[in-house]
Amino acid sequence: MSKHPSFWVVIPAAGVGSRMRADRPKQYLQLADRTILEHTLDCFLGHPGLKGMVVSLAADDPWWPSLGYASDPRIRRAEGGVERADSVLGGLRLLSELGAGADDWVLVHDAARPNLAREDLDRLLSELAGDPVGGLLAVPVRDTLKRVGPDGRVLETVDRSVIWQAYTPQMFRFSALQEALVGALAENVAITDEASALEWAGQSPRLIEGRADNLKITRPEDLQWLQQRWKS
After folding, report:
1. Which of 6, 171, 209, 218 is deepest in the core (most CB within 10 A)?
2. Looking at the chain, which runs of residues are DSSP E strands?
3. C-beta neighbour count of 41 within 10 angstroms
4. pLDDT tens digits for 211-224?
């Protein structure tokens, strides 16, 4: 039996990315010769364990149909929502129609995180294959952290040895993820990532250390950094 379990992927991509100050959502900006979103999809499309992929998009998204991947049979389009959790749930509903089972693994990955290394993906899959909860890629923080008050002054220095940055993919069982997201939204819980929904449901996701350069493009300087890195 393969050490890497089979899996589905959901890419929430309905956001507008206003901090990029661009004329289109950040996932459609160019990186090298393709859009950021196309590079992100490439991180998974060559993997033998992939069962299928759903991209959750805004209903009025005019850019997706122009991409070659829009007609790829391995990728299906779902309708996204205002919040990330709404988009993920839309993707999960479509996965259910495609045959995803309750115990199937689902990986949720940021649309603007195109530099996921194959070795990180394989490590996540192999390390969590038998885990009862699932987990996510993460990176221990490197810098000194400060907690500040409303006046902008330091209150204390935080112990960084127990603080990690949450990355994606985040990997959970289909039914557990869906139930956690639905329940948390019904209780008006702030869901910033899928792991936070599982945490609200009483679970403890496992952290798998990944590469720090699996960055999420959020600001113009992030894209500039990655463009320079890919040129070198």
Report:
1. 171
2. 7-13, 30-31, 34-35, 50-57, 75-79, 105-108, 134-140, 145-148, 154-158, 164-173, 206-209
3. 24
4. 999 999 999 999 99
Q: Please state whether beta strands 30-31 and 154-158 pair in parallel, antiparallel, or not at all (unpaired).
A: unpaired
Q: What pTM value is reported for the model?
A: 0.94
Helix (H) or strand (E) holding 177: helix 174-186
Band of the pLDDT at 1, cuts 50, 70, 90?
very low
Q: Is 216 helix (H, G, I), strand (E, B) or coil?
A: coil
CA angle at residue 219 from 115 to 228, to 5 degrees?
50
Say how many C-beta atoms besides its own lie within 10 A of residue 206's C-beta. Answer: 17
Q: Which helix (H) or strand (E) holds 152?
A: none
**Pairing relation of β-strands 154-158 and 75-79?**
unpaired
* Helices 36-45 and 118-128, axial angle in degrees (round to 10): 50
Yes or no: say if 10 and 54 are a contact pair by the CB < 8 Å rule.
yes
